[in-house]
């Protein structure tokens, strides 16, 4: 019985820590665990062994969302993590309520607006 209680405490602590990590990101509602973990049809549960490039960058930075992580392009899709997560400058104040795309998945990007067009639009609204 003691073993079952101990195991339940350990598992709930691990799940809680994952939720704590997600809450450090500006938005995470759409992709949740898939922001940092690759999940396929055979491996449906995130684990330490399937951390994607964004998850590794997030971990290397001490699980802190900041301007440095926002400026990175972890998945190599030509869109910085900040644009994908809706907080371009990495100040923790998102410009959107949900992610534009997943910074850990190269095939998932905000392709409706290409990088050059985004720069032009952004310059139109500069102070």
Q: Secondary-structure element sequence?
A: HHHHH
Q: How far is the first residue's CA from the last residue's CA?
A: 64 Å
Query: What is the radius of gyration computed over CA atoms, rounded to a whole number of angstroms?
Result: 17 Å
Number of strands: 0
Mean pLDDT: 81
* Helix-residue proportion: 25-40%
The number of helical elements comes to: 5
Query: What structural class should be given to the helix and strand makeup?
Result: mainly alpha
Question: The biggest beta sheet, please?
Answer: none
Beta-strand content estimate? under 5%
Basic shape: globular
- What ranges have pLDDT less than 50 throughout 5 or more consecutive residues? 5-16
Pfam family, one: Temptin_C
Organism: Eiseniibacteriota bacterium
Domain Temptin Cys/Cys disulfide: 18-90
Biased composition (Acidic residues): 85-96
Task: Walk me through this protein's architecture.
The protein is mostly helical. The longest helix is centred in the N-terminal third of the chain and has 22 residues, at 2-23. The chain has a domain at 51-127. The protein has five helices and no strands. The termini are far apart.
SSE arrangement:
Layout: H1 2-23, H2 53-60, H3 67-71, H4 81-84, H5 115-124
Biased composition (Acidic residues): 85-96
Protein name: Temptin Cys/Cys disulfide domain-containing protein
Domain Temptin Cys/Cys disulfide: 18-90
Defining key terms:
single chain; mainly alpha
């Amino acid at each position: 019985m003691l073993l079952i209680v101990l195991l339940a405490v350990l598992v709930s602590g691990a799940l809680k820590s994952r939720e704590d990590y997600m809450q450090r990101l500006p938005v995470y509602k759409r992709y949740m665990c898939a922001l940092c973990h690759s999940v396929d049809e055979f491996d449906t549960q995130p684990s330490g062994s399937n951390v994607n490039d964004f998850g590794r960058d997030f971990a290397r930075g001490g699980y802190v969302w900041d301007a440095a992580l926002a400026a990175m392009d972890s998945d190599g899709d030509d869109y910085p993590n900040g644009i994908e997560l809706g907080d371009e400058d990495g100040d923790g104040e998102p410009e959107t309520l949900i992610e534009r795309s997943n910074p850990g998945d190269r095939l998932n990007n905000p392709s409706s607006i290409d990088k050059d067009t985004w720069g032009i639009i952004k310059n139109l609204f500069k102070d």
